[in-house]
Amino acid sequence: MLCLAAVADMSGKWTGNVKTPDGSDLQINFVFKVDGDKLTGTAQGDGDPTSIDSGKINGNNFSFTTSNPQGMVFKQSGIFYGDSISMKIEFSGNKLHSTLTRMLVRSTMFHLAKK
Question: What is the residue extent of each domain of the chain?
Fold first, then answer.
């Protein structure tokens, strides 16, 4: 049960950067929703958000797929560390890596700025 409680903390908004095959940096954003061993939510790169499909959680490991409007499938997997996520992204023979961090809520940022 302790593992499930820890992974449940993965729910929320996460952001990171990935270096694309052409060498440019791309910000990526995720909204994860954890329900037992199922992972749902959305992913967004340079286009509109897309749904997370086939999301699975096993301990602190997870995997899911997304696809773009052209039908290209992106296989994604990672490890949840509590304060960060190590993520692998595979598509069309490319293998990318990103470290995600939790997005701060605007009211939290305002509160911190006032201190």
Answer: 2-114
Contacts of 47 (CB under 8 A, 6+ apart): 68, 69
Both tokens of 12, joined, read 């929320």
What pLDDT, in 10s, does the model give residues 21-57? 999 999 999 999 999 999 999 999 988 999 999 999 9
DSSP assignment of 71-100: --EEEEEEEE-SSEEEEEEEETTEEEEEEE
Q: Which fold has domain 2-114?
A: Lipocalin (2.40.128)
Give φ, ψ of 4 to 5 degrees.
Answer: -65, -40
CB of 24 closer than 8 Å to CB of 39: no
